[in-house]
Description:
Oligomer: single chain
Shape: globular
Number of domains: 2
Strand content: under 5%
Largest sheet: none
Helix content: 55-70%
Amino acid sequence: MLFNSYAFLFAFLPATLLLYFAVGRRSALAAIGFLALASLFFYGWWNPRYLLLLCGSVGFNYLVGRRLARSPQRARGDGAVLWLGIACNLALLGAFKYAAFFAVNANALAGLALPVPHIVLPLGISFFTFTQIAYLVDAYRKEVREYRFAHYGLFVTFFPHLLAGPVLHHAEVMPQFARAGTFRFNPENFAVGLTIFAIGLFKKVVLADGIAEFATPVFDAAGRGATLTFLAAWGGALCYTFQLYFDFSGYSDMAIGLARLFGIVFPANFNSPYKAASIIDFWRRWHMTLSRFLRDYLYIPLGGGRCHPLRRHANLMATMLLGGLWHGAGWTFVIWGGLHGLYLVLNHAWREVQQRWLPGHALPRAFAQLLTFLAVVVAWVFFRADSFSAARVVLEGMAGMHGISKADPYYFGMPQLKGLLAMFVIAWGLPNAQQLLHRYRPVIATYAGELLAPGRLSWRPSGAWALLTAVLLLAAVVNLTHVSEFLYYQF
């Protein structure tokens, strides 16, 4: 089931909210159990067969986590249990997500004849796997305080984050379900949650799906080997750049808004990343809970930045390569991760040069933002392209190797230009959701002290803001002519 579907908007969500608060008046534990079951129904709507996989993963990790967290001090053998738990999670992820990728490449490189499995990737498997790996590590560190199975099951399956994040920490969410007020209807939570949800739904249905019709033909043509001119290639790349941003940030806003309807505050996942003035800054703003996971559970264990600069650069590159592979089983994703790894290495090297030789001489912020944005756009070409050859076609066009002919069937014309200008204005000129609702603690700060300062616009529960929320919801519902999947739907 998708957030941008009639079944979710007009049946599942209102029914779940009403029953949750009705049950919550009588028993908090019953409300938690009900919400966990409702979340499983939400997941099973797409393919009930994968419910067994999800439930098996939840049960296994719960038992391993209980074993790791059962004593206040680390017991003998805890390290082996932790690595076993992590290995089993990665094996499950690898079997479904990477088996075909490795078989194809082994056949090509070694001349083997391994069978290539055709597996439908379970929804959200990367997200619920990473969430549970983080839980096991936290349990090993003795940072877990809640051991009841119903609570753990809800932590993993809570439907707002189940399919595409945010990637949650157990300590962020479960203490909120320990408060009695969570199970009582709160008008402020409802108003805040509905506003954030409306913003996210509008982003997805109107903005992301609207600009997608310009991006898709360009990349489809590149996949067929067609020649792209300068305007067509840049138009397609920029349209996809904003399609992805409004699609995924829209999902994150919807997830945060839905959780708030149930009285739960999620961590921030997007913080106006296209306003970043460096790649380091970009990765503290884009998909923030994933970048935090990669930092805390991969980069720092590898040695982080507390080592020789060359080792630190190697750690950065390894982290981003694996992060790229996490996004998809294909070499284009690996190249995308490698590009961002290279960007980060160069960014850190530049900072060292600047601090040592050019103190007080920073690049003008507008120029740094433009340079960062262009680097991100180039990397998105590999993220979107179906193959390296398709990415090469787009990049050749962006480099002007095939001219700027207006006769190009994929010519970037006035409709595309108007759409892009609207995206630029919204992404750079307007506050994001957490800025807009900053008075009401819309999110948990994923990185301490790094949420952007509030803008001039400030939401408050009033008739004018209620009307604007209704307009956003109406515009989104009117544009629900077909159900379109989120770009991170099966990661």
